[in-house]
Design a protein that fits this description.
The chain has a single domain, classed as TIM Barrel, CATH 3.20.20.140. Helix 8 packs across helix 9. With 234 residues, the protein is α/β, with parallel strands linked by helices. It has a seven-stranded parallel β-sheet with strand order 1-2-3-4-5-6-7. It has a two-stranded antiparallel sheet with strand order 8-9. It contains nine helices and nine strands. Helices cover 46% and strands 16% of the residues. It is globular.
Length: 234
C-alpha cells in the first residue's frame, strides 16, 4: 500500500473484488510512517505492519529504524517485513544482526512476524525458531521442500502470491503445504509479468491456489481468511 497511487480508487477496486481488509506492510521509517498514516486514514480497511526490510538497511540508520519499530509496534498487528536477502549487497553479518534484533522485538511484543527469506530460507527459519517467535509467515515462499516441512512442523505459515502463475518453485511449495498453513497476498505494488499488482489482485492468488490445490474457490477463500484472522488476531 505504501507505493500505490490513488489509494481511494485502489481500495474501491479491492472492495469490488471482495477484499475488505488489507495488511499494509512497511520496510523502513518512511514507509512505516506511511503505513501507520494509511491505517489511521482507513481504520476499517487497512491494518498496519511495520518492519525493516533487508533492502532498506543502511549501517547508519539501524538503531533509528529499530527504535521506531519498538516505539510504534503496539499499534500494529504484525512486525514486518523483515528478514534476510542474499541477493542484496548488504553484508550477511549485518543482516543477521538486524534480523536478530527485530526478532527480539517481536518476541517481546508477542506480535507475529512477516519474514522475507530470499535465497536464505534455511537461515531465516533457523533464526525465527531460535528466537522463540511463535507466529511467523514466510512470505512468498519459494525455497526447498525440506525446509518448508520444518517451517510447517514449527507451526509457521507461508504465503502465496500471484507469482504462482509462473514460478515453479513457488507452485511446488504451495502444493506441498497444508492449506491450513497458507496465507494469500499480492505483495503490491510488485510487478508480475508486466502488471503492477494492487490489493484487488488478491483474487488472482486465490484462483491460483484453488487451481494448484484442486479445491473450490470458496473453500480456499474461507480457509485462508480464517488463517489470516487467526494469524493476525483480527
Amino acid at each position: 500500500m505504501n507505493e500505490i497511487g490513488e489509494i481511494d480508487k485502489a481500495l474501491q477496486r479491492a472492495q469490488g473484488a471482495g477484499v475488505n481488509r488489507i495488511v499494509a506492510v512497511g520496510m523502513d521509517i518512511a514507509s512505516n510512517k506511511k503505513t501507520l498514516s494509511l491505517a489511521n486514514q482507513f481504520p476499517e480497511i487497512i491494518y498496519p505492519a511495520i518492519g525493516y526490510h533487508p533492502w532498506s538497511i543502511t549501517f547508519e540508520e539501524i538503531d533509528k529504524n529499530l527504535t521506531f519499530i519498538e516505539e510504534n509496534l503496539s499499534s500494529c498487528i504484525a512486525l514486518g517485513e523483515a528478514g534476510l536477502d542474499y541477493k542484496t549487497p548488504m553484508k550477511k553479518n549485518i543482516q543477521w544482526e538486524v534480523f536478530s534484533r527485530v526478532l527480539l522485538i517481536a518476541k517481546n511484543s508477542g506480535r507475529p512476524v512477516i519474514v522475507h527469506s530470499r535465497f536464505s530460507h534455511k537461515r531465516t527459519h533457523q533464526m525465527v525458531r531460535e528466537a522463540g517467535v511463535e507466529n511467523a509467515v514466510f512470505h512468498w515462499y519459494s525455497g526447498s521442500i525440506d525446509i518448508l516441512e520444518r517451517i510447517i512442523e514449527d507451526g509457521y505459515f507461508i504465503s502465496a502470491t500471484p507469482a504462482l502463475a509462473y514460478s515453479l518453485s513457488h507452485q511446488a511449495a504451495i502444493k506441498h503445504a497444508p492449506i491450513e498453513r497458507l496465507l494469500i497476498e499480492t505483495d503490491a505494488p510488485v510487478e508480475y509479468q508486466g502488471k503492477v499488482s494492487e490489493p484487488a489482485d488478491l483474487i488472482v492468488t486465490l484462483r491460483e491456489v484453488s487451481r494448484i490445490k484442486g479445491l473450490k474457490l470458496d473453500e480456499v477463500k474461507r480457509i485462508t481468511t480464517n488463517n489470516a484472522e487467526r494469524f493476525f488476531g483480527i
